[in-house]
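Title: Comparing notes on inverse folding

I've been comparing how different people in this forum approach sequence design from structure. To keep things fair, I'm posting one structure and asking everyone to reply with a full sequence. Here's the target:
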């Protein structure tokens, strides 16, 4: 939630409460969206990690 909030320029608390309310209103869609975004950010970090040289693979 912190990374999503930083990229949007809002507080992490607002993002967390939004996901909680979205989960209750849409019967689980908010939680699924949260898991998807967390997975996407993790994959993005793995792809775009900065390496010092070619031999750091």
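Reply #1:
Here's my take.
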């Amino acid at each position: 939630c912190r990374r999503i909030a930083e990229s949007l320029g809002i507080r992490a608390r607002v993002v967390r409460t939004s996901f909680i309310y979205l989960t209750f209103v849409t019967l689980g869609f908010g939680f699924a969206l949260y898991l998807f975004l967390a997975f996407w950010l993790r994959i993005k970090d793995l792809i775009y990690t900065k390496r010092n040289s070619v031999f750091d693979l």
